[in-house]
Specification:
Length: 498
């Protein structure tokens, strides 16, 4: 039975989608069918296609009562919208269906677990959101909320765990066919922790352990946990709120952290040996991963910074993009990311330059565009004298540009969208410490109309940023203070569907 709230959302989004031209959206990054999107949810492979849900408010390009939007794809690049999957229409979730995940049940049904939100009156005009974990079962289009919801509530919390910050369940199926899930929570010290729950059938859940506690090391509340094995290690991904920067790590306020370490399955505890930001750019939060049918660990995130949502006005046709899906690996104890290999099928019209000397500004014939994949290798032009600075500018015309600039002496790579057309005094720059040997640097830059994602040194680091520069600004130029030499391989990215 679909509720009135869900029917209204479905009707509204269908009408609204028709008003948004194809050119007004990115080509291969998922955006909300209408209005607002934040976290990717329910990332799963079901009935031969990838399903991606998302935090969704269809009625305006700003955060509101959360629904789950829904899209499917067979290559993780071309997305087809399906009707809105969940609406806040039950007593226990009437103030929002917050983030969650999906698994496939042995009987072929699709199981979603999400956070139900209910505002509770405290005193005078003060309300707080009580958060519980809820289920919905469906066929890939329509989902029925479970009659015994919520399946996890304050009775399932360890002592001191807050019932107001208890959200974002990420489930997975274990090797023995049972299920586990991690949920973000806030212990008595006010920072964050990740709780682990287990279930034999996906419906009855019980508390297993506190997987790991923050103890105020990484921000405050930990949102959107994900936990998986990769290359012989265990990886915990979290999105902490209210982070303090540490050197060149964690500059995003609400940031992302990847912890790599060891998991003791018997006690249900995790000990990290390494931590790093997942993305070193401006716009990235709330990751979710999937194990693809061919065994790749693929991650997506919300390519937006909570503090910079004012980059678009609520009257814009949409706000929020899902990042390009990235293949993950652990090498030398660090997280590596590379664009999903499916992207290679979109590459066309290769333009290549080898060993070009750059001193001052250089433009190269055929190197332009806003939907492209460009590999750029930079090295000193003269080994005796290191260049001071190298920069590549893109989304460029007479007025606008966004740039990546590199200072080899400091090993600092900077993304700067100050001149991308934003009229707001929000964060437009981010600097990252990168690895370089004698001024050499390797970048893979992916543009898709409204964003740039930069994979540094074969995926050692990634920097993502959105930019809403007018599309006519499609120039690219290179600059060096001193002399640098570059190799460039550029492809246009074209959809292979009509
Ligand atoms: C993270 C988050 C989640 C929550 C959702 C609400 O961006 O705050 O913790 O479930 O967004 O939309």
């Amino acid at each position: 039975m679909t509720s009135q709230t869900l029917r209204e959302a479905r009707k509204y989004e269908e009408a609204c989608e028709k008003l948004i031209g194809k050119e007004e959206r990115p080509d291969f990054h998922l955006t909300p069918r209408a209005g607002w999107m934040n976290d990717p949810n329910g990332f799963s492979y079901y009935k031969g296609r990838y399903h991606l849900f998302y935090q969704y408010y269809p009625y305006e390009a700003k955060w509101g009562a959360m629904h789950w939007g829904h899209a499917v794809s067979s290559d993780l690049l071309h997305w087809e919208y399906l009707p809105c999957a969940l609406a806040p229409d039950e007593v226990y979730d009437k103030d929002g269906c917050f983030s969650g995940s999906a698994v496939v049940l042995p009987d072929g049904r699709h199981l979603l677990m999400y956070t139900g939100v209910l505002r509770e009156h405290q005193k005078r005009d003060i309300y707080r959101e009580v958060q519980t974990q809820c289920l919905a079962v469906g066929d890939g289009i329509d989902y029925e909320k479970y009659e015994q919801n919520p399946v996890l509530d304050d009775r399932d919390l360890p002592e001191g765990g807050s019932r107001f910050d208890f959200r974002d369940p990420k489930m997975w199926k274990q090797a023995d066919g049972t299920y586990a899930c991690v949920v973000g929570n806030r212990p008595a010290d006010g920072s964050g922790q990740v709780l682990l729950y287990t279930s034999a059938d996906g419906f009855q859940w019980k508390f297993k352990s506190v997987l790991v506690t923050n103890c105020n090391r990484f921000g405050k509340m930990w949102e959107c946990p994900d936990f998986f094995e990769l290359d012989g290690k265990w990886v915990l991904m979290i999105s902490p709120q209210d982070m303090l920067p540490k050197g060149f790590e964690y500059h995003n306020g609400n940031g992302t952290v990847c912890m790599i370490g060891d998991y003791d399955e018997v006690s249900g505890t995790f000990k990290e040996t390494h931590d790093q930001a997942i993305d070193y750019g401006i716009d990235f939060y709330a990751t979710q991963t999937i194990l693809s049918p061919d065994g790749r660990r693929i991650m997506v995130g919300w390519m937006q910074n909570w503090d910079a949502c004012g980059i678009r006005s609520p009257e814009a046709p949409w706000l929020g993009q899902v990042s390009l899906p990235r293949e993950l690996s652990v090498k030398n104890g660090r997280l590596y990311q590379s664009p999903i290999r499916e992207l290679d099928t979109m590459r066309c019209n290769k333009v290549e330059y080898t060993d070009v000397a750059v001193s001052g500004v250089v433009k190269l014939d055929g190197i332009r565009g806003r939907k492209l994949d460009m590999e750029l290798t930079v090295r000193p032009g003269d080994m005796r004298e290191l260049y001071q600075k190298f920069a590549v500018r893109f989304a460029q015309d007479d007025i606008y540009y966004t740039s990546l600039s590199f200072r080899p002496r400091e090993s600092i790579l900077k993304v700067d969208r100050k001149f991308s057309g934003s009229r707001r005094a929000i964060i437009h720059q981010r600097r990252s410490l990168v690895n370089t040997v004698e001024g050499a640097l390797k970048l893979r830059i992916i543009l898709d109309r409204f964003s740039v994602e930069v994979f540094v040194n074969d995926g050692e680091q990634v920097m993502s940023a959105t930019m809403y520069t007018r599309q006519e600004a499609d120039g690219i130029s290179f600059f060096a203070d001193g002399t640098a030499r570059i190799d460039v391989v550029k492809y246009e990215l074209q959809s292979n569907t009509p």
